[in-house]
Amino acid sequence: MIPHALKNKLKTVSKPGRYIGSEKGEIIKDKAGKTRFCYCFPDTYEIGMSNLGMKILYGVLNSLPDVWCERCFAPWPDMAELLKKENIPLYALESGDYLKDFDIVSFSLQYELSYTNVLYMLSLAGIPLSAQERSEEDPVILCGGPCVYNPEPFAEFFDIMSIGEGEEALPELCRLYRDSRSKGESKKQFLFRAATELEGFYVPSLYQVSYLPSGEIASFEPIDPRVPKKVTKRIVKDFDKSYYPTDPIVPHIETVHDRVVLEANRGCFRGCRFCQAGVLFRPIRTRSAETLCRQAKEAIKNTGYGEISMCSLSISDYKELDKFCQSIFDWCKKEKINISLPSMRLDNFSRELMERFPGLKRSLTFAPEAGTQALRDRIRKGVTEEDLEKSMEVAFSSGRNSVKLYFISGLPTETDEDVVGIADLAMKAVDTFYRVRGKVKGDRPVSVNISVSCFIPKPHTPFQWDGQNSLSELIRKQELLRSAIKSRRIQYSWHDARASRIEAVLARGDRRVSKAILAAYNAGQIFDGWDEYFNIDRWEKAFSDGGIDPDFYANRDIPLDSILPWDFIDVGVTRAFLESEHQKAHLPF
Question: In whole angstroms, how large is the CA radius of gyration of the chain?
Answer without folding.
Answer: 24
